[in-house]
């Protein structure tokens, strides 16, 4: 058979025959590229043939391109079947994702994305430009803060409880008087078109389909209105990068647009009045906001009050020359000077729903938040992106919960990479957990479907982990300090 292929023959045959015919990574290079090999989808892999079929997978990536036609078709078929399966079950109990995948496997349909949560990052890296990957993965300085975030999770262990015949754990949670299907939310992440052409639209759609709250970043590539449209009947909040006081009218406009478009909770990010010291971006001399294709600035470009301000100050409309107009917008958002606690009053006057402060790391600041009269805080260190050498978020969560947990809602963010991580953060007192980089890796891997896969995987694993521990629900009465133990220091 190899001889025939060498002569440029078109051959149709199955994988087994192909392997049995002696086709391997070692002899493919000699085959001319006009030869065409058609096989059944590569999703069909008998476990018995596993080791030899690995050859085929390598061939698929071989520059000789021999297997390309077959592989691309296989991937497409595989994705199509997967899409159908995803669409057929709107918002199932998350743990049933596992059953669904195994039963699809019976008809030779393998999932197009890995379930190995640790591999999402490396898989995304293969797809992204160095700049985009650097921006996503990047953290401040030596990445010690991010390492601290991860290390802390390993110091806590979940304690199982046996012979508990309860039904599977309920993941519903209550926040600000509303019931949410799941105790997780999509963390605000800017410039999502850097990672996939569908950017925020893909993520907001995925969030709606999986019944997970979407938090829109002020640094989005898509307007408040268009994201609301994609998110439709889903739950959505708005994250504010807070313009300096001189531009309160712009802030009021951003809040007003969010309110008008169904964003229910205001999340105010406190730790990013200037971008952190990030070697991965500095090495590439890359600031996504200043790119010539103008991504991450759509909320400014679509804001009527900003347009008016710009025209009055510079004597020309924003459209006349986009680059300086964008530079001005970025300067207003990241002014380099922090707001003060006093300034919160302005937001309270212009927002009638709950306000959450994102970026609290100490008891003192949590108490100030209580005194300021906000409804919630997100305990986080921005995933280590802003400051190096900072204490891990999980390490400070218990003391903050103890100090103020009865006076406002406490959310958690930074370092979540698995369902078990979510379980630990909830057990240590968080009401809701924000998912950051993992869903962006999913976005890079497969747009909307990639994000859905990440959300389903995390929720499915969370639900099974809790169920196997005999925990009835994610409410504090069932999921609390008694179900975890600190095992390391
Ligand atoms: C690429 C990227 C962009 C981000 N953009 C924003 C943003 O626009 N607003 C914001 O409040 N936080 C932003 N964050 C921080 C996330 O909301 C979240 O706090 C962080 O990702 C948590 O860390 P983890 O991803 O390591 O879990 C961003 C994070 C990443 C990775």
Characteristic terms for this protein:
489 residues, alpha/beta, eight-stranded parallel beta barrel, two-stranded parallel ribbon, 20 helices, 44% helix, binds flavin mononucleotide, flavoprotein, FMN-dep_DH, FMN_HAD
Short description:
44% of the residues lie in helices and 11% in strands.
Describe this structure in words.
It is a single chain. The protein is an alpha/beta fold and about 500 residues long. It has two domains: about 1-75, no CATH class; about 125-485, Aldolase class I (TIM Barrel, Alpha-Beta Barrel), CATH 3.20.20.70. Helix content is about 45%, strand content about 10%. Strands 6-7-8-9-10-11-12-13 form an eight-stranded parallel beta barrel, surrounded by seven helices. A two-stranded parallel sheet has the order 1-2. β1 (about 10), α2 (about 15-20) and β2 form a beta-alpha-beta unit. α9 (about 200-210) runs parallel beside α10. Residues about 30-55 and about 60-75 have low confidence and may be disordered.
How many helices? The count is 20
**Which bin fits the share of residues in helices?**
40-55%
Give the spatial strand order of the biggest sheet: 6-7-8-9-10-11-12-13
CATH architecture name of the largest domain? Alpha-Beta Barrel
Q: How far from one another are the termini?
A: 61 Å
Report the top-level CATH class of the largest domain: Alpha Beta
Low-confidence stretches: 31-53, 60-75
Q: Can you identify the CATH superfamily of the largest domain?
A: Aldolase class I
CATH topology call of the largest domain: TIM Barrel
Per DSSP E runs of 2 or more residues, the count of β-strands stands at 14
Quote the average pLDDT: 87
């Amino acid at each position: 058979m190899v001889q025939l292929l060498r002569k440029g023959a078109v051959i149709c045959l199955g994988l087994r025959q192909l392997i049995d015919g002696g086709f391997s990574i070692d002899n493919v290079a000699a085959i001319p590229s006009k030869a065409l090999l058609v096989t059944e989808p590569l999703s069909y892999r008998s476990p018995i043939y596993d080791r030899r079929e690995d050859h085929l997978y390598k061939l698929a990536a071989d520059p000789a391109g021999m297997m390309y036609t077959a592989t691309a078709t296989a991937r497409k078929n595989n994705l199509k079947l997967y899409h159908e399966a995803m669409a057929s079950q709107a918002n199932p109990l998350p743990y049933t994702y596992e059953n669904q995948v195994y039963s699809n496997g019976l008809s030779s349909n393998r999932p197009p994305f890995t379930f190995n949560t640790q591999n999402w990052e490396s898989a995304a890296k293969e797809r992204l430009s160095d700049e985009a990957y650097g921006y996503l993965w990047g953290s401040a300085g030596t990445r010690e803060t991010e390492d601290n975030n991860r290390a802390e999770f390993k110091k806590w262990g979940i304690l199982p409880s046996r012979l508990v015949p309860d039904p599977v754990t309920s993941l519903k949670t209550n926040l600000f008087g509303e019931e949410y299907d799941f105790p997780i939310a999509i963390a605000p992440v800017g410039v999502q078109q850097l990672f996939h052409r569908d950017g925020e639209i893909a993520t907001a759609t995925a969030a709606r389909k999986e019944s997970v709250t979407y938090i829109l970043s002020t640094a989005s590539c898509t307007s408040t209105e268009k994201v609301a449209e994609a998110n439709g009947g889903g739950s959505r909040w708005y994250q504010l990068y807070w313009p300096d006081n001189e531009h309160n009218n712009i802030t009021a406009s951003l809040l007003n647009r969010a309110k008008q478009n169904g964003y229910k909770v205001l999340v105010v990010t406190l730790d990013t009045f200037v971008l952190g010291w990030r070697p991965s971006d500095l090495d590439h001399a890359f600031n996504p906001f200043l790119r010539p294709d103008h991504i991450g600035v759509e909320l400014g470009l679509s804001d009527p009050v900003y347009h008016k301000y710009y025209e009055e100050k510079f004597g020309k409309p924003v459209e006349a020359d986009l680059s300086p107009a964008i530079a001005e917008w970025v300067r207003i958002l990241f002014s380099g000077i922090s707001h003060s606690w006093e300034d919160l009053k302005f937001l309270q006057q212009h927002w009638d729903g709950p306000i959450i402060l994102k970026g609290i790391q100490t008891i003192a600041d949590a108490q100030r938040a209580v005194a300021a009269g906000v409804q919630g805080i997100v305990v986080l260190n921005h995933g280590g992106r802003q400051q190096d050498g900072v204490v891990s978020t999980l390490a400070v969560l218990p003391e903050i919960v103890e100090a103020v947990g009865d006076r406002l809602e406490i959310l958690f963010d930074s370092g979540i990479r698995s369902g078990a991580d979510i379980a630990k953060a909830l057990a240590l007192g968080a009401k809701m957990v924000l998912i950051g980089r993992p869903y962006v890796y999913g976005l890079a891997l497969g747009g909307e479907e990639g994000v859905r896969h990440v959300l389903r995987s995390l929720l499915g694993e969370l639900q099974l982990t809790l169920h196997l521990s005999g925990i009835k629900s994610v409410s504090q009465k069932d999921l609390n300090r008694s179900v975890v133990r600190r095992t390391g220091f």
